[in-house]
């Protein structure tokens, strides 16, 4: 029988695998990136009110205009970048849909896309589905910095896109000013697009700056910028995100978007448009998560793990060379079963399964959850 698979080497994501294992054995789930606490009660009230007020039918295909206007205001205030809400901002069913749609809109057969690994696992399958070629560049612990001289060697006349992710999942690193300068020099006078995954944009620690592509005119004009309200407001189950892009790129993006989902959750859009008017709702997030990071790192310092740097996102990566020489997938499964704490093995984010003996823990959890996890990991 003829094979129906367009992704024959792709199985169930590691996130689903580890969460299922955590549920099966009753482990504390620090694997998948979702909070175990509720969003702001006011946000629930706003959604409820929107439903009661009758906002239960299709939203416009690009998203509700008041929400797009709030995003435009936020982006201009934070990054000095002007986006037209009508033609340059699209509301999506989460960050992953926005990423997939941008790749579908831009990548043609035999186009090459540069991806930095470890990479979020939705990039490569989307590129392959469009007939594109993934040009991977592997980053290494402890700092996972990009070697731009190596990137130059990957550029060819078929390079169509570079995918960036800052703050980075899974390594919690961020782009620095020197990275931006190198990137600007690299794409200058070249027909290369950028897909910038910025879903953790407000989770930057230690007073550092989020170097959004929106801040830099030369990069802004060639960038799809993706963000997520699920990550922002602890509502991952609402699946609401957005994409910023110049008008011509947005027009292509929306051609795909309209047939993929058409439009997304109307009452949630109404609520978030209202909620965003309180700027502290997003400006206070860095402090909240920095406190969680510091608390979790202090606990992990009592274990035998080696802590890797964490400059952003809500993930903490650790090396376990001093504990075991097992493969990270085996080690992650064993500590889930034997010690009751689920993590993600970072080799899952490398196309070749490169194993640096690194695990990723999510610290977007209640304090008591983190306490219990540390208590168990100390026994390793």
From TrEMBL:
Pfam families recorded: Aminotran_1_2 (PF00155)
Top-level taxon: Bacteria
Keyword field: Aminotransferase, Pyridoxal phosphate, Transferase
Co-factor requirement: pyridoxal 5'-phosphate
UniProt-listed InterPro entries: Aminotransferase_I/II_large, Kynurenine-oxoglutarate_AT, PyrdxlP-dep_Trfase, PyrdxlP-dep_Trfase_major, PyrdxlP-dep_Trfase_small
One Gene Ontology molecular-function label: pyridoxal phosphate binding
Domain Aminotransferase class I/classII large: 28-377
GO cellular component: a single term: cytoplasm
UniProt entry tagged with the keyword GTP-binding: no
Family membership noted in the UniProt record: Belongs to the class-I pyridoxal-phosphate-dependent aminotransferase family.
Protein name: Aminotransferase
Lineage of origin: Bacteria, Pseudomonadati, Bacteroidota, Sphingobacteriia, Sphingobacteriales
